[in-house]
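ok so i was messing around last nite and threw this chain in just to see what happens. nothing serious, just curious
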Amino acid sequence: MSGDAVKTVEQIRTRSDEETAGVARRLAVDLRAGTMIHLVGELGAGKTVFVRGLAEGLGIDPDEVSSPTFTLVQEYVGRLKLFHVDLYRLASAEVDDLGLDALTTEAIVAIEWANRMPVDDPRALVVRIEDVGGDERRISIEWPPRAV
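result:
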């Protein structure tokens, strides 16, 4: 048996913000503290909409969730604590100073613009959101390899 681990990838198409949030709501049901979610997508792709769905799935009022572009990190408390991080305004070198790994011990950490991180975390659940026109989105969820 090979030591190479393979990620599981799930592809989903949504046709509205509500459907995009619904994907995240369903995902939140199975999440545990210590989960890091890397959100990747262009400006306006639906990353914050996805985090609102995560929040709702964790028992947090989705109307409380806004993009933390200027505050960098926002904390919400529901069934589990949710840290919502936005790296849009940071350079890769500045990301290391945030100490994001320390947040995962007690919460779920959803990171927008995760592609700005200097190193990929193979343990992260990666959500790629692509705007394919109109209100339609292509969401790719890459599950980290499972420990055997």
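not much to say yet. The first helix runs from residue 17 to 28.
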